[in-house]
Write a sequence for this structure.
């Protein structure tokens, strides 16, 4: 198979980052579309009880996906560094260890989830009238964990090899399968909420099979071979050291958002609807930042693996300009035409007005979060995922809780909650910038550069 792996250690930095980030942005937009389609099918076909059951389990599903996204990041960082260093044996060992971890971790989570589901749902206060529906959905969802883990880790490997287009394509195929599966299981077979969960299982499996097939058909010696799957303890340890802090960071951000949501819920239905519209509008600003940050993670990993520290610093500066520029351009549209933008998400004048107020108070500062994403991406690409986790813990949870409590004492409205966001973006961006400036992250490469010199000597 002729794969489209890209060596990001040479060529134009801007062009490399931009072309690598585009498919990542496409993947995130596909995920947004997938969530919307699922909600449309469940809400319109099965009714509000089923919709509430699926929505009420979202915390569990987000935590599952967030955890394994973090593990995928750990695998991707190590893979990108070995790929940049041309250390093919270490790259082979990493890919096969990742496959072994996929099997073990997913088996543990599936068994634990299936048994513990009733307790977990009680912990998050699922109402008794939808408990049965929620239990059916989440148990079938847990069966898709192997496919979720396989796709996330395999996609992380392909992206680390410089190929962000194939994972996007496979994800798109999976999402198209999800649309047809939802229609078939719910409309034709009348399986109800079980049909919605089975559609998710099918779509995740399609995407996973395609990514795994791609890894098995690479025409390099590091392609995935089933008979070579094993867990090498030293590599597994490195994956956990990088992956677990990133997984925790993802869940911390979810927790911080839930805390804010709980306060919004106390302000009435209009405020809840306005905040929901704000979150949808915010997605258009966040997704490009995320794509650029992830692209920079791979770029830094490959170049640091190759020992090209100056190119690492240049790529991060380029990514900052790119991320901040895109964010400011989109923010300007919202700030100039706030009511027109929020009218896309609601036709209620009061909700549009509230949503516009939140946007006007926050979007002018949203470029600060681009700094967080890009610098965190660089630090993760170097193999240091603990500092971004600590920064998130201190600022997104600790500082945010304090500011939220104080703000609501003086401004007990949606404006009091809105002001929390720019304040914590300032503290978070300053914290991550100070750590980045210290340069301590540059010495965390997993690569043995003595081997690079040996490879170069052989090539000469």
């Amino acid at each position: 198979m002729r794969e489209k792996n890209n060596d990001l250690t040479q060529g134009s930095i801007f062009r490399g980052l931009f072309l690598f980030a585009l498919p990542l942005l496409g993947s995130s937009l596909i995920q947004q579309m997938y969530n919307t389609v699922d909600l449309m099918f469940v809400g319109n076909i099965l009714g509000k009880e089923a919709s509430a059951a699926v929505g009420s389990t979202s915390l569990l599903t987000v935590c599952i996906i967030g955890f394994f996204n973090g593990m995928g990041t750990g695998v991707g960082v190590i893979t990108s560094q070995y790929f940049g260093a041309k250390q093919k044996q270490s790259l082979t060992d990493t890919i096969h260890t990742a496959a072994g971890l996929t099997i073990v971790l997913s088996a543990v989570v599936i068994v634990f989830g299936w048994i513990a589901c009733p307790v977990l749902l009680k912990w998050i206060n699922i109402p008794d009238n939808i408990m049965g529906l929620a239990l059916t959905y989440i148990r079938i969802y847990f069966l898709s964990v192997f496919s979720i883990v396989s796709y996330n880790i395999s996609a992380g490997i392909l992206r680390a090899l410089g190929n962000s287009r194939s994972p996007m394509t496979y994800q798109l195929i999976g999402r198209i399968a999800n649309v047809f599966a939802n229609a078939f299981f719910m409309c034709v077979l009348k399986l109800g909420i079980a049909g919605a969960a089975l559609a998710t299982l099918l779509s995740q499996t399609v995407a996973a099979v395609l990514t795994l097939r791609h890894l098995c058909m690479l025409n390099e010696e590091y392609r995935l071979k089933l008979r070579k799957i094993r867990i090498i303890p030293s590599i597994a340890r490195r994956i956990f050291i990088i992956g677990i802090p990133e997984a925790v960071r993802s869940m911390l951000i979810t927790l911080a958002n839930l805390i804010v949501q709980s306060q919004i819920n106390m302000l009435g239905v209009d405020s809840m609807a306005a905040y929901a519209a704000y979150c949808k509008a915010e997605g258009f600003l966040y997704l490009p930042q995320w794509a650029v940050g992830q692209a920079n993670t791979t770029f830094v990993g490959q170049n640091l693996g190759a020992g090209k520290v100056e190119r690492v610093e240049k790529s991060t500066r380029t990514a900052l300009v790119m991320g901040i520029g895109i964010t400011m351009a989109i923010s300007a549209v919202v700030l100039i035409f706030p009511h027109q933008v929020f009218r896309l998400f609601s036709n209620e004048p009061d909700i549009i007005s509230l949503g516009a107020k939140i946007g006007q108070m926050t979007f002018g500062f949203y470029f600060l979060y681009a700094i967080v994403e890009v610098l965190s991406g660089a630090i993760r690409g170097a193999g240091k995922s603990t500092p971004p986790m600590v920064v998130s813990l201190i600022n997104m949870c600790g500082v945010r809780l304090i500011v939220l409590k104080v703000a609501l004492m003086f401004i007990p409205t949606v404006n009091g909650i809105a002001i929390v966001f720019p304040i914590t973006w300032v503290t978070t961006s300053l914290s991550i910038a100070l750590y980045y400036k210290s340069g301590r992250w540059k010495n965390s490469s997993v690569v043995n550069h003595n081997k690079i010199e040996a490879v170069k000597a052989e090539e000469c």
The chain has 18 helices and no strands. The radius of gyration is 22 Å.
